[in-house]
Amino acid sequence: MTAGHSPRPLPAGLDTEIVIVGGGLSGTLAAILLGRRGYHVTLIDRHEIVPREFRVEKIAGDQIDKMRRIGLLESLSAKASPFSEIINLRKGRLLDRTRELHYGIFYDDLVGTMRAELPKTVQFIAGRVGALEANRDRQRVSIVGQGDITAQLLVLATGMGDILRRDLGIDRRFVHRRQSMTFGFNLKPVGASSFAHQALTYYGEGTSDGIDYLSLFPAGGTTRANLFVFREPDDPFVKAVRERPRDALVRNLPGLVETFGDFEVTDRVSSWLTDITVAENCKRDGAVLIGDAYQTSCPAAGTGVSRLLTDIERLCMFHVPQWMGSPGIGAEKIAAFYNDPVKQAMDAYGLQQADFRRSLTIDSGLRWQARRQVHFSKRRILNEIDRISPNLAAVLRRLKRSGAEAAT
Ligand SMILES: Cc1cc2nc3c(=O)[nH]c(=O)nc-3n(C[C@H](O)[C@H](O)[C@H](O)COP(=O)(O)OP(=O)(O)OC[C@H]3O[C@@H](n4cnc5c(N)ncnc54)[C@H](O)[C@@H]3O)c2cc1C
Predict the structure, then answer these.
(1) Is the minimum distance from the CB of 26 to ligand 1 under 6 angstroms?
(2) What percent of the chain has pLDDT over 90?
(3) At what angle do helices 25-36 and 107-115 cross, to 10 degrees?
């Protein structure tokens, strides 16, 4: 699907109007949106075919609304595994059942599906970018062994491990080092042809186990497990999950097998240690950072895709069209993106949710003990209301959701 805009002639002396370094979800979606508006875009990524890497594996809530708004929900939903009803457990018993559309999809499938939507105005180059130069009028990107590309605007979407930003004098601040650990693996049922439920979330028992939640859901023709914990990488539990994931889950989450069915883990456990970082000194000529390259998110909070979708919507639909209307991309134009109130609210929400999940899971102070009690009691009460009056429960859930959306 392309927008039908035809590209304008390129300004003299430039290879392209916009060069995007990094073709993960942020860079690919930005390329689609800008290409659809008729800009000449060059998208560069290390990988021609996206490898299987452990990142977001389900899309839900505001992410679905935003994907719909940018016209890409249909292609996502054609490739993903939809599911709605989730059984939620805590302390071995039912907490509640939630009904909300989710799409399970591996990250390589997600980005690959989006790359198939790149319009003709976007040129994709497989290669590793080794150096960058940015200034007001002309940006230079050097691809190792393949020469240079020049452009009017440089978009850096190189993800959380980015070091290229240093070429531009951009630093990053650690908001929280070793914020959380995430594990991902595939399950198959044992002693039955399928699991008892399509999707299940099991919340940790208490502050001592450091487990935020285990999420089981369909993706890519299998049942996927994502486990989010607030533990140090050298913790014995972390080693146990890597080496004997089934035993570690069964020992720490009583009632899991009884509710979901017995299982075996069918592949190697992937794990990821996340630091929360924010780019600093980035209001500079010629270049803009988006997605994880600008700010990372705690996987347990599930805000990474919400953040990057806000970045690309605001950048591509609002700021870039204004910037390209007059010569030069000076720091004052770039600053307008970082100062955008919609972006700032989303970034702040991402940081706040990262703190919230961590404190809700492991803070043993009195205030958080009380908050935890209230948080889970509210859900149990709502579940009871749901049993007696599903309509009233639906209204209360809608109110709660609209409160959370207002915060973003
Ligand atoms: C384990 C895990 C679980 C997560 N779960 C969730 C979740 O449930 N919900 C949620 O919303 N978010 C989640 N997230 C966050 C989400 O996955 C990220 O926010 C999102 O993937 C960031 O996309 P990005 O395009 O900014 O970065 P990336 O996906 O990291 O893409 C960066 C791209 O840049 C390319 N690149 C880097 N350097 C170069 C170079 N020098 N030259 C060329 N190319 C380069 C890389 O090849 C890569 O393709 C999770 C993250 C992790 C790690």
Answers:
(1) yes
(2) 88
(3) 20
